[in-house]
Amino acid sequence: MRQAMVNRLREEGLINCDSVAAAMRAVPRHDFAPGEPLEKVYRTDTTLVPKIDAQGRQTSVVSASHIQAIQLELAEVRPGMNVLEIGSGGYNAALMAEIVGPTGSVTTVDIDADVVHRARAGLHRAGYEQVNVVLADAEHGVAQYAPYNRIIVTVGAWDIPPAWLDQLTPDGRIVVPLRFAGITRLIAFDRTPGSPVLTAGNYRLGSFVPMQGDGAASEQLIPVTPDVGLRLDQNSALTFDVPALRKALHTKPVESWSGAPFDMPDELELYLLTSGPELPMLHAAQAAVEQGVVNPTVRNGTPALVRGGSFAYRIKRENPQTASGYETGVIAHGPEAEQVAGELLAMICTWADCYYRRGAAHITYHPNTADTSGLIGWHTTKRHGALAVAWP
Length: 392
Ligand SMILES: C[S@@+](CC[C@H](N)C(=O)[O-])C[C@H]1O[C@@H](n2cnc3c(N)ncnc32)[C@H](O)[C@@H]1O
Known about the structure:
There is one protein chain. The chain is an alpha+beta fold. The protein folds into two domains: about 1-215, Rossmann fold (3-Layer(aba) Sandwich); about 220-355. Helix content is about 25%, strand content about 30%. The strands form three sheets. The chain has a ten-stranded mixed beta sheet. Strands 10-11-13-14-15-16-12 form a seven-stranded antiparallel beta sheet, with helices on both faces. Helix 1 (about 1-10) packs antiparallel against helix 2 (about 20-25) and helix 2 (about 20-25) packs across helix 5 (about 90-100). The chain binds S-adenosylmethionine (SAM). S-adenosylmethionine (SAM) binds near residues 59, 63, 88, 91 and 154.
């Protein structure tokens, strides 16, 4: 089953590196998920042993193996390295222990005593007792075993705290699922020689349970109806005419089509959110989709361009004449629907003409120790620094 899981991850293009494949073949994933059926344990898209809090939210899981493969590939962990994993489960730490080998070292830290206990037990069962398992709030890193060649964050982070940078070697890399502009992107940051700025070598789609403790962040949810809402990050100052938007939701929408292929929606989403005016994420419950109030694309959240009492978001339709077999379009509601649709469609066409590829964004993180006065283009200011996204 381990071999079959690795074969699937290779076929999906998620494992290209032989050391990641060898580690996934070697580590018994089921040792870290006692009680879970084996077929489930060795699927590539399934999280295991979820821990749910009193409000019904997931606070911990052993991540799906396809996410772990992506993270390990982004991290480029090598034999002999010293690695810190933030957020434990045991399995991923065991994979890293396989890769770094006897000359390397792995530390994993979790804020939750139950998770630390479970991770230790799994590592013991599977024979990876050399991994240091630490109970702490990772906002402050783990100074005891620093400096690290790699810091792999497996929990959704709002920011990059100074301790992580202090505990990273000069040529170290941080792989972190970072939240900004209402979305999360899994980003591999390297230091820029001679500068405190971090530069993303690569980024991918990836979502994780949110960070707890000192680095925890909140979101703003602005309900338009009980089933439809706009979501903003905690540092956004956007405001909306909610009664006008509620009214617009029930007016006949306008649809416009771009002729551009619908493909790589995560890349288009990143472009829409970081290239022009600030856009909230439009979310809806299944009921609103079923009642035809919003298009199904809204179910998982989609950027919306809001102008007064009108708004627009992207949709797709089948079109065999495009490269992907689907075409991107826009649906808009409200008195200014035509104009808002035209504005969003123009943004989509620019992306399709200039940035229709993976990795087109240039992402940098500027810690507060860096001079951020010259930052031009899209950026967002966080607690410990600013994140900038440029479209060169
Ligand atoms: C997705 S799970 C980690 C999965 C794990 N890396 C694996 O083997 O797949 C995220 C973990 O982050 C932990 N966490 C949340 N906030 C934290 C913090 N401030 N410091 C350390 N751990 C934290 C949660 O308790 C949870 O167990």
